């Protein structure tokens, strides 16, 4: 029995280790944290940001696996939703497809100067698509 | 009479059609005063119709041209080996119709992509669960979470590309500008090697 538990614990630990390492590698590749530090000029807090990501991942993992209910005001959902949206938006923007496609596209159709407008098309498309999905589609 | 000059080819120059390119146009020159003065206005290349949009000037061609009129001069070259001549043949103007089409294409594509993403990662269930965690209530549509989320999405993208706070926050280039620069550099590199017949030679079956 104890051998079985130990084995299960080992499997769980191994799985968590791999997923955690993968998660951090994913964030590193996308370069969101460096981008945020560059924008806010807070490079010196890098270890604080690392801690934020790790605690966030641990709390999120624990919260989804346990049945925790905080019974707080529903208005708290608003800032949390906004922050979640900003993070996913940065993820979407950082995906290299967007970065690689836009220069080629603007060059091909000969409008190098209008790249901001095309970027706005993508941004507004994302906002519209998301709202459409939540409000109408479902 | 011998002198010494230092040449550094410019990376990219823009000209009109049917124009004569002088040495001072295509390179930075320094060195012995009299040599610089004599060589600045030396014609190096004549842009003609058959060049079409782009021509590449090799440093060897430049050295050869100078040596032809002044064999004794000592030429020291610095930096890149080719200069790209971009020939402006009247900018093709983009029709507004095409622009609107591309804009709508990107708009609809981005909207569809984010919806697919939400379905793919079961974002709806995560939102319902998160709302339940915070408030203790289970609702079918946690709009209070989802509407700010949607606007945050757009804000996050703008933040990443840094087009809003550009002037205020810092002068560093945005990731998109860096990516455009890299793409242009790749294109230049390709053109410099491909359009320049001297860089490749086939000695097979000689």
UniProtKB/TrEMBL annotation, chain A:
<feature type="transmembrane region" description="Helical">
    <location>
        <begin position="115"/>
        <end position="136"/>
    </location>
</feature>
<keyword id="KW-0472">Membrane</keyword>
<keyword id="KW-1133">Transmembrane helix</keyword>
<feature type="transmembrane region" description="Helical">
    <location>
        <begin position="6"/>
        <end position="33"/>
    </location>
</feature>
<feature type="transmembrane region" description="Helical">
    <location>
        <begin position="45"/>
        <end position="63"/>
    </location>
</feature>
<dbReference type="InterPro" id="IPR020144">
    <property type="entry name" value="SpoVAB"/>
</dbReference>
<keyword id="KW-0812">Transmembrane</keyword>
<protein>
    <recommendedName>
        <fullName>Stage V sporulation protein AB</fullName>
    </recommendedName>
</protein>
<feature type="transmembrane region" description="Helical">
    <location>
        <begin position="75"/>
        <end position="95"/>
    </location>
</feature>
<dbReference type="Pfam" id="PF13782">
    <property type="entry name" value="SpoVAB"/>
</dbReference>
Automatic annotation (TrEMBL), chain B:
<dbReference type="InterPro" id="IPR021997">
    <property type="entry name" value="SporV_AA"/>
</dbReference>
<keyword id="KW-1133">Transmembrane helix</keyword>
<feature type="transmembrane region" description="Helical">
    <location>
        <begin position="143"/>
        <end position="161"/>
    </location>
</feature>
<keyword id="KW-0812">Transmembrane</keyword>
<dbReference type="Pfam" id="PF12164">
    <property type="entry name" value="SporV_AA"/>
</dbReference>
<protein>
    <submittedName>
        <fullName>Stage V sporulation protein AA</fullName>
    </submittedName>
</protein>
<keyword id="KW-0472">Membrane</keyword>
<dbReference type="InterPro" id="IPR038548">
    <property type="entry name" value="SporV_AA_N_sf"/>
</dbReference>
<feature type="transmembrane region" description="Helical">
    <location>
        <begin position="97"/>
        <end position="117"/>
    </location>
</feature>
<feature type="domain" description="Stage V sporulation protein AA">
    <location>
        <begin position="4"/>
        <end position="88"/>
    </location>
</feature>
């Amino acid at each position: 029995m104890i051998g079985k538990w130990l084995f299960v614990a080992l499997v769980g630990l191994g799985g968590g280790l791999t997923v955690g390492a993968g998660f951090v590698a994913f964030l590193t590749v996308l370069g969101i944290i460096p981008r945020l530090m560059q924008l806010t000029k807070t490079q010196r807090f890098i270890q604080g940001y690392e801690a934020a990501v790790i605690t966030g991942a641990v709390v999120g993992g624990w919260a989804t696996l346990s049945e925790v209910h905080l019974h707080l005001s529903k208005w708290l959902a608003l800032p949390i939703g906004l922050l979640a949206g900003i993070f996913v938006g940065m993820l979407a923007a950082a995906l290299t497809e967007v970065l690689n496609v836009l220069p080629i596209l603007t060059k091909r159709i000969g409008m190098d100067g209008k790249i901001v407008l095309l970027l706005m098309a993508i941004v507004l498309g994302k906002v519209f698509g998301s709202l459409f999905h939540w409000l109408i589609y479902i | 009479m011998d002198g010494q000059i230092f040449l550094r080819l410019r990376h990219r120059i823009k000209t009109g059609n049917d124009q004569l390119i002088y040495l001072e146009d295509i390179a930075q020159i320094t060195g012995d005063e009299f040599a610089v003065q004599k060589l600045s206005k030396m014609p190096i290349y004549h842009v003609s119709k058959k060049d079409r949009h782009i021509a590449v000037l090799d440093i060897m061609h430049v050295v050869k041209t100078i040596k032809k009129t002044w064999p004794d001069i000592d030429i020291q070259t610095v930096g890149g080996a080719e200069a790209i001549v971009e020939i402006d043949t009247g900018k093709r103007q983009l029709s507004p119709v095409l622009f609107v089409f591309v804009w709508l294409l990107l708009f609809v594509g981005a909207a569809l992509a984010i919806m697919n993403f939400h379905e793919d990662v079961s974002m709806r269930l995560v939102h319902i669960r998160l709302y339940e965690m915070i408030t203790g209530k289970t609702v079918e549509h946690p709009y209070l979470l989802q509407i700010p989320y949607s606007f945050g999405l757009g804000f996050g993208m703008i933040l990443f590309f840094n087009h809003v706070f550009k002037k205020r926050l810092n002068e560093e280039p945005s990731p998109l500008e860096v990516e455009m620069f890299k793409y242009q550099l790749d294109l230049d590199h390709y053109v410099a090697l491909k359009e320049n017949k001297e860089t490749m030679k086939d000695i097979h079956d000689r």
